Amino acid sequence: MWKFLAAAYWILLLGSVCDSNKKTSISNPEANMNISQIISYWGYPNEVYDVVTKDGYILGIYRIPHGKESSVRTGPRPVVFLQHGLFGAATNWICNLPNGSLAFLLADRGYDVWMGNSRGNIWSKKHLRLSPKSREYWAFSFDEMAKYDLPDTIDFIIEKTGQQRLFYVGHSQGTTLAFIAFSENPELARRIKIFFAFAPVATVKYTENPMRKYTNLSRKAVKILFGDKMFHPTTNFDHLIATKVCNRKFFHRICSNVLFSLSGYDANNLNMSRLDVYMMQGLAGTSVQNMLHWAQAVQSGKLQAFDWGSPNQNMIHFNQDTPPLYNVTKMKIPTAVWNGGHDVMADIKDVENLLPKISNLIFYKQIPHYNHVDFYLGQDAPQEVYQDLFHLMEQYLQNEVHNVMDRL
User: Fold this and answer.
1) What is the 3-state secondary structure (H, E, C) of the chain?
2) Per the residue annotation, which of 25, 342, 372, 374 is the catalytic one?
3) Out of 172, 183, 256, 263, which one is annotated catalytic?
4) Is 343 designated active site?
């Protein structure tokens, strides 16, 4: 598919396919911006911080402290933390126009919005000691993200804001980190008001994602194909495809089909005029080891720590011969779940197996036409997802006020 797009690009340059009328292409400046620039472009305040994890990784996190208009809230603004999924970044939450991007909508409703970036993506590629050029730097998977990235980021936010608890919104792998961290770390769990899970992923036994075909390869074969460092780094070629090909109406269907092949089909819900933004800002990379961990999860059908390849190595990391299982039933946080009927990553059967294990499920909604990325890219996400999320947040805050009043 990408070879086809490359050929199409060169044909386009020669003027053999589309006419040169500027109306045939739509360019969005955000495709070439960093996170802070996108936030500022739409007139919102923004702050950027470095979080240093206990194992030395330096994560870039972003804050929108308030909306463009003055808030009607009195006192500190409630804190919301947004965590992206596999391959994603904080940009996922600001890719649409302000009236369709969750981060901007939350800020305008009076919330203090924070957005995380997992280790190894393009916004979090620093370390106190290790170089991203080294194999040692990339020796991590979602185990370490749940053990270090998530709790250390939340601790930083709590210290910075002075608030003891916050709302957590996760998408895909962002929910996986939460299921692990909140079940393994009770102290961290007590700092979460509500866990909002978009396209939740605990197991991927039934996933139909095209990358499933690589899960039967040996680790040696995977490393021959993809190396042993970063998986899918953004290249200049990606930039050319996104900003010179996918911004043209002639290629909208082809480019969107590339996106749908990984997430599930829902063409009517995607703003085709913003494909250049989605394709430039949507994929931020991860480690090959993280992909090996997901391959392990597909093969085992379990939510389990990374298998280091031998009983001796597992003993070093876990004090046991085999990697331990993560027990979602130990998580007691109020949890709201949304999943999609066309999601090829978070398959309906996997979600149905997960739901009975969530001991404090306060809300569940399945959206039949939704794919894996509709939860942050879908044009109807404000109606299908966010309005329920806002209602649950406001209801929780009202109950907080009532509880305080009752104690006086």
Assistant:
1) CHHHHHHHHHHHHCCCCCCCCHHHECCCHHHHCCHHHHHHHCCCCCEEEEEECCCCEEEEEEEECCCCCCCCCCCCCCEEEEECCCCCCHHHHHCCCCCCCHHHHHHHCCCEEEECCCCCCCCCCEECCCCCCCCHHHCCCHHHHHHHHHHHHHHHHHHHHCCCCEEEEEECHHHHHHHHHHHHCHHHHCCEEEEEEECCCCCCCCCCCHHHHHHHCCHHHHHHHHCCCEECCCCHHHHHHHHHHCCEHHHHHHHHHHHHHHHCCCHHHCCHHHHHHHHHHCCCCEEHHHHHHHHHHHHHCCCECCCCCCHHHHHHHHCCCCCCECCHHHCCCCEEEEEECCCCCCCHHHHHHHHHHCCCEEEEEEECCCCCCHHHHCCCHHHHHHHHHHHHHHHHHHHHHHHHHHHC
2) 372
3) 172
4) yes
How much of the chain exceeds pLDDT 70, in percent?
90
235 touches 284 (CB < 8 A): no
Average predicted confidence (pLDDT) for the chain: 89
110 pLDDT higher than 70: yes
For the record, the structure tokens of 228 come out as 């042993």
Q: Clarify whether 372 is annotated catalytic.
A: yes
Name the catalytic one among 343, 347, 350, 374: 343
| Tokens found for residue 275 | 């494909």
Catalytic status, residue 172: yes
Half-sphere exposure of 351 (CA within 13 A, CB side): 25
**What is the value of pTM for the model shown?**
0.91
